[in-house]
Amino acid sequence: MPIIKSAQKRVRTAKKAAVRNLKTRRTLKSAVKTVHNAAKTGKKSAEKEFKEAVSAIDKAVKKGVIHKNKAARTKSKLAAAFKKSGGKITKSTAKKAPVKAKSATKKTVAKKPAAKSKAAPKKKPAKKTTAKK
Question: What pLDDT shows up at residue 61?
Fold first, then answer.
């Protein structure tokens, strides 16, 4: 057990995150399996299950449980199995993976206003010579 207070908190939060991630993984795996089983048996509900599986994959990517490339690979395999069973993929059936938003913790650098160009310094008027008397 860590001694430092912040390390103790990290242990607690890591446990909570692990539970959340396990739940997401479990739903993802079960959704993928149901699509493969439906494709093998040729069920009519395969389209609905395909949509749910794609949704579960997208949620897992959004939460950071799986990598986006793995998600794309899995969707591709699911689509191939779905097509093989006789299903048709339409725009409403397959949706694109969400793009992960940039985190708000990163500091954004504000652009500095354009530097004002300095005007050339004014020339001093020429000295007037005084005439000798």
Answer: 96
Q: Which domains does the chain have, with CATH numbers?
A: 5-84 (1.20.58.110)
**H-assigned helices in the chain:** 5-41, 46-63, 68-84
Q: Rounded to two decimals, what is the model's pTM?
A: 0.61
* pLDDT < 50: residue spans in the chain: none
Residue keyed to tokens 């949706």: 95
17-45 in b/e form (b: 16+ CB < 10 A) is eeeeeeebeebbeebbebbbebbeeebee
Other CB atoms within 10 A of residue 105 CB: 5
- Which burial class, exposed, middle or buried, applies to 57 when counting CB atoms under 10 A from its CB (0-12, 13-18, 19+)? buried
Distance CA 32, CA 133 (A): 110
pLDDT digits (tens, 9 = 90+) for 23-56: 999 999 999 999 988 888 877 778 888 999 999 9
- Give the number of other Cβ atoms within 10 Å of residue 132's Cβ: 4
